[in-house]
Request: fold
Amino acid sequence: MMSPAAQLDLAKTQRIHVVGVGGPGMSAIAQVLIEMGHRVSGSDIKESETIDRLRTIGVVVNIGHDAGIVHQCDAVTASTAIPTTNIELVEAINIGASVLTRAQMLAAICKQKISVGVAGTHGKTTTSSMLMSVMREAQLAPSFIIGGEVRGVGSGASWGNGKYLVVEADESDGTHEQLPLGAAIVTNIDVDHLDHFATFDNVVESFARFIDGVDGVKVVCVDDASLVKLAATRDLITYALHTPAHFTARNVRFLEGGSTFDVLRHEVVGDAGVVLGRVQLQLRGEHNVSNALGVVALSMLLGINFNICATALSEFSGVARRFDQRGTDGGVVFVDDYAHLPTEISAVLSSCTDATDTWKRVVAVFQPNRYNRMQHMSDAYADCFKHADHVVITDIYSSGTTPITGVTGKLVVDAIVRANPQTSIAWKPTRAELIQHLATELRAGDICISMGCGDIETLPDEVMAARRVLRGES
Reply:
């Protein structure tokens, strides 16, 4: 077990070492710590673009693990992916340094600002990025730690000189409950991370504790049934597209790959409401309208003018790997998306064709993620591909989880075929089979949307290259 973390005061300059610094979560923490003025070192097992970037801002990174590297450190932190037997962690405990989990280090960072958490099973990264953008537009110079790269910013983390820190409050390992927050948004509560929570009831209870622990305004989406129940017994501000709430949207339109909607504020839930104005988004889909509505609600409760919200949201160009158009080849449009849970996949596919889109066929490619997730949840994917004309499933990306006998991507295929036997579907477990199938199957007028949180993100480039080879081009 990791040693109990001593109270780490980040108001004073510290010498901090980050184990597994190349990962997205830990690299963001390292970046913020060094921008706060701390002396930061890190270690990882291989070089990467992320590690190059960290070195340019002053993080001293060691490739490979070395017990001596933690000497003279005040604190050592590691992601949950790092085993407690790691020699750097063991040595840190032996010499009496504070050893913190990522959640504990994030909590120590949050104590230095008024921290605003964005929680929920889906939409955290986009919603927190929108909120940070609104605060920037309002000249509040926010700090942020977000789980994805914000387009136009080029990073998912920064330490600003304003009083607010926008932080993505991740529930996967219970981190969200450990963060000291002065305000929060909760977008939804869905089935996931049952390897940690065991049951969905436990997931809901965890979000209830999260909400109750926030010292300040709390904004929740009551289009979500679980959040309706939590809001019934708490003093929460609500937003929704389909349910009476304090903030609602009407005249929602989807055109030109974007969205427009009017925002209404209701003093009493269910009253006629007052129209605050119109918001125009560059993003598709009802889920993004909902995310933006939640951001407007919280921003206004923090004193930000509606027009500032609307301006920032109109300029917001999204987050990497969220309906990311990666290129066109022979009349086929290639899109990459991070969606990996059924609700997310359904949202992406239902939003991919508006009245002004010209593609004739939607080809959905999905790479399932984590053996333990698929063991618990494969049946939940049965109906989320209904807006696709052709579905291609490949094998599971492990994300560090241990293979389980009988658990493969074929479980997802079987679930879809049982529920929707008419589905045009292909099972292509290996990357070579997947690329070959798509290179020959896709035709002019198709949009090919590849989804998942593993190495599927490189698939569009691989398929476009394979198509060029088939045409005899270099």
